[in-house]
């Protein structure tokens, strides 16, 4: 069985074709500048086929999907002989609200429910819906499954997801903590249990997804019980360009003083804040490391803040779960930055965490980076959201 995994953004579309017998990615790629002009980079991973990396006209997502299918099935760049070999499509969908606590097969009622969730993710869900519709238009009635970033966190108890504002805003309007990166937290926590050789039901885990966007999740017995992102992905930790937790009074103050509209204000908080805003250098942790090494104090402050916040939020989850068996690092920063992991783990002395320097220097593999006698284990697990989407799709369509 071969499953196409699609992650559609407003002007981009990432894809992977996965052979489910081996769980191997047989082709992957990225469409960019959809609706502007269009560019496709398609990389076949088997059969010694050529990489395609050229402009392709993509007025809408439908042309992007058509170009992807064309390349997947072509003589020169292809990995399958026809579209019929693609058994199903799994779509990443950002927001499933309270309607979706797990992945679902897409039908008309699901599409209607996705539309209802759109006000919660006005930038992301419309792009995801467009991607699904484009696939339908190009691929006909191939079965499709939606996998939600929010679904894993639907197990959070009311005490964790409720905001302390008048309750009717939750009841009437759905204002609550939803959390994001659920597919990633789910993947790495399950993998961590495998690596520990223990049933996940018996483990208390803290997963630190640290990339451009960052969130932490407390996972007790395999279930998300708390997470740092909220109603939107803006809050929690300071991120690449997002502010993380912020007193709402600051918003009022800045809007009054500088006459910002709410859109301008949110643009600042989403795109110009986080480690970029504090450092004035970059949102990329590699640039911050380099600047800090040269003595840039604001770059160092941004890094110090990030480490501090990860440690502080993770510490609060130790309290929430009354213990922790393992801490997991994943995503761009978590998987690649030995220094960031070390700086965060320096805060965990009280937990009896001890890091094995040699293991912490390795890259690109699932690895335990704590010493054998470390009381709490620490793992680096490269995340694989596409594989979770493909597995869910396979399970749901009954392959
Ligand atoms: P992601 O959102 O998971 O793709 O992560 C992207 C981020 O990972 C980039 O913006 C970088 O800040 C970070 N990153 C990637 N490689 C490294 C590295 N070697 N050291 C530090 N940060 C890295």
Largest sheet: 8 strands, mixed
Lateral strand order in the biggest sheet: 5-4-3-2-1-6-8-7
User: Number of helical runs?
Assistant: 15
Q: Which small compounds were modeled alongside the protein?
A: adenosine monophosphate
Helix content: 25-40%
Number of strands: 14
- Rounded to an integer in angstroms, the radius of gyration calculated over CA atoms is 21 Å
In short:
39% of the residues lie in helices and 19% in strands.
Structure write-up:
By secondary structure, the protein is α/β, with parallel strands linked by helices. It has 2 domains: 2-148, ATPase, nucleotide binding domain (Nucleotidyltransferase, domain 5), CATH 3.30.420.40; 198-385, Nucleotidyltransferase, domain 5 (2-Layer Sandwich), CATH 3.30.420. The protein is 39% helix and 19% strand. The chain is built from 15 helices and 14 strands. The protein has helices spanning 61-73, 108-117, 125-139, 158-161, 168-173, 182-196, 248-258, 262-271, 274-279, 285-293, 297-321, 331-336, 338-345, 357-360, 385-397; strands at 2-8, 13-19, 24-32, 39-44, 52-55, 88-93, 104-105, 144-148, 204-210, 214-220, 223-227, 326-330, 367-368, 377-380. The strands form 2 sheets. The protein has an 8-stranded mixed β-sheet with strand order 5-4-3-2-1-6-8-7, sandwiched between helices. It is globular and about 55 Å long. The structure holds adenosine monophosphate (AMP). Residues 211-212, 240, 284-286, 331-333, 336-337 line the site of adenosine monophosphate.
């Amino acid at each position: 069985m071969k499953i196409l995994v699609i992650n559609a953004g407003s002007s981009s579309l990432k894809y992977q074709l996965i052979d489910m017998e081996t769980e191997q990615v047989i082709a992957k790629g990225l469409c960019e500048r959809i609706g502007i002009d269009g560019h496709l980079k398609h990389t076949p991973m088997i059969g010694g086929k050529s990489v395609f990396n050229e402009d392709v006209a993509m007025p809408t997502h439908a042309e992007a999907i058509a170009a992807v299918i064309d390349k997947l099935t072509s003589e020169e760049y292809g990995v399958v002989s026809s579209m019929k070999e693609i058994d199903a499509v799994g779509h990443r969908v950002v927001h499933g609200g309270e309607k979706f606590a797990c992945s679902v097969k897409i039908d008309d009622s699901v599409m209607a429910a996705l539309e209802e969730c759109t006000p919660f993710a006005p930038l992301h869900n419309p792009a995801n819906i467009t991607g699904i519709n484009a696939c339908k238009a190009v691929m006909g009635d191939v079965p499709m499954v939606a996998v939600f970033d929010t679904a894993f966190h639907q197990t959070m108890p009311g005490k964790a997801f409720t905001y302390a504002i008048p309750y009717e805003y939750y009841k009437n309007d759905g204002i609550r903590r939803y959390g994001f990166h659920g597919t990633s937290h789910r993947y790495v926590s399950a993998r961590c249990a495998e690596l520990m050789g223990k049933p996940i039901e018996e483990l208390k885990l803290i997963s630190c997804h640290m990339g451009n966007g960052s969130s932490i999740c407390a996972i007790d017995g395999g279930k998300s019980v708390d997470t740092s992102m909220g109603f939107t992905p803006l809050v929690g930790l300071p991120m690449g360009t997002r502010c993380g937790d912020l007193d709402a009074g600051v918003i009022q103050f800045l809007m009054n003083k500088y006459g910002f509209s709410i859109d301008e204000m949110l643009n600042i908080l989403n795109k110009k804040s986080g480690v970029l805003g504090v450092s004035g250098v970059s949102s990329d942790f590699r640039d911050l490391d380099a600047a800090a090494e040269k003595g840039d104090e604001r770059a160092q402050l941004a890094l110090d803040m990030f480490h501090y916040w990860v440690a502080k939020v993770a510490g609060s989850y130790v309290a929430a779960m009354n213990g922790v068996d393992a801490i997991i690092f994943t995503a761009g920063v978590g998987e690649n930055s030995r220094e960031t992991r070390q700086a965060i783990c320096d805060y965990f002395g009280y937990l009896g965490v001890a890091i094995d320097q040699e293991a912490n220097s390795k890259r690109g593999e699932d690895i335990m980076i704590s010493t054998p006698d470390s009381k709490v284990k620490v793992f680096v697990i490269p995340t694989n959201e596409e594989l979770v989407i493909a597995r869910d799709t396979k399970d749901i369509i009954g392959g």
